[in-house]
């Protein structure tokens, strides 16, 4: 039997679709207003780590520790795992282009009501200059991050979801160790207001394994 245009099932589907289409923006964007519980935050971190691990299973894993500060003088402490792309481009006598996946956890220091936690995942492209025992490099990348809550020391992020933009520079030593500086900016790109954004400027040390 064919469905008629007045079928209860079809009308029910149309009603549901109509309600969704007519829902106000503040309802359809409600997901961006919610803070991310700690359990969900670390579940996201676990999923990201597994995904990166599968993509880079054949490559070495390095670990990074970093200490930094924001414009508001908030201290930041970051732990990260890096998975090299395992390839390079445009190799010349000057240097080469390469990169890695970076999975990170950051603690944003503050008082009991303003401290925060975030996890992030980003592909990072690195231009490494040629050298013997020391190789200077510059890097840049754009990734994604999730914050436990939407405020860091008065900066209103608007949503737990953020884009992570970074630039950095440093030195790579024989044996794979590395020291460098980074500037990382977080913003939701206007997905949800307010969108104050926040930056962290950090020193880091990378250990090769």
Automatic annotation (TrEMBL):
Protein name: NAD-dependent aldehyde dehydrogenase
Family annotation (Gene3D superfamilies): 2.40.160.20
Organism for this UniProt entry: Stutzerimonas stutzeri (strain A1501) (Pseudomonas stutzeri)
């Amino acid at each position: 039997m064919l469905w008629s245009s007045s079928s209860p099932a079809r009308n029910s589907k149309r009603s549901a679709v109509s309600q969704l289409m007519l829902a106000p923006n503040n309802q359809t964007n409600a997901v961006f207003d919610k803070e991310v519980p700690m359990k969900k935050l670390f579940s996201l971190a676990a999923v990201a780590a597994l995904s990166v691990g599968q993509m880079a299973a054949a490559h070495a894993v390095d670990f990074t520790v970093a200490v930094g500060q924001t414009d508001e003088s908030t201290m930041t402490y970051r732990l990260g795992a890096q998975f090299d792309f395992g390839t390079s481009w445009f190799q010349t006598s000057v240097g080469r282009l390469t990169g890695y996946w970076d999975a990170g956890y950051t603690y944003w220091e503050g008082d009991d009501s303003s401290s925060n936690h975030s996890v992030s995942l980003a592909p990072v492209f690195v231009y490494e200059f040629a050298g013997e025992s020391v190789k200077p490099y510059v890097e840049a990348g754009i990734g994604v991050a999730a914050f436990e809550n939407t405020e860091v020391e008065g900066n209103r992020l608007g949503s737990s979801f953020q884009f992570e933009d970074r630039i950095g520079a440093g030195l790579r030593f024989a044996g794979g160790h590395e020291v460098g500086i980074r500037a990382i900016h977080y913003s939701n790109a206007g997905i949800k207001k307010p969108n104050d954004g926040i930056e962290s400027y950090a020193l880091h040390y990378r250990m090769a394994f």
